[in-house]
Write a structure and sequence with these properties.
The protein is an all-alpha fold. The N and C termini lie far apart (31 Å). The chain is built from five helices and no strands. It has one domain: Ribosomal protein S18 (30s Ribosomal Protein S18, Irregular), CATH 4.10.640.10. It is globular. The relative contact order is 0.17. It binds zinc ion. The site of zinc ion has 6 residues, from helix 2 and helix 5.
Length: 85
């Protein structure tokens, strides 16, 4: 238990730099047609990656979620990805 807590704390201090990719690159457009980008922010199961993992800020996370949902609706990306077990 104690070990787990420690590793968590360490992650907070030295973990991956977490900054918002879109704040960093203002000319990157969050667009549902940009499938490559959308996929980056989706898990392999087709779920939207939480902002605490991707490091995206509130504002941009909202926009990504919106665009992903739009992309799903017009079937550019799947709602769920079938995995073979
Ligand atoms: Zn941002």
């Amino acid at each position: 238990m104690a070990r787990r807590q420690m590793s968590k704390r360490r992650f907070h201090r030295f973990g991956k730099k977490r900054y918002c990719y879109f704040c960093d690159n203002p000319n990157v457009k969050i667009d549902y047609k940009n499938i490559e980008l959308m996929r980056k922010y989706m898990s392999d199961r087709g779920k939207i990656v939480a902002k605490r993992i991707s490091g995206t800020c509130n504002k941009h996370q909202r926009r990504i979620a919106k665009e992903i949902k739009r992309a799903r609706f017009i079937a550019l990306v799947p709602f769920t990805v079938q995995t073979y077990r």
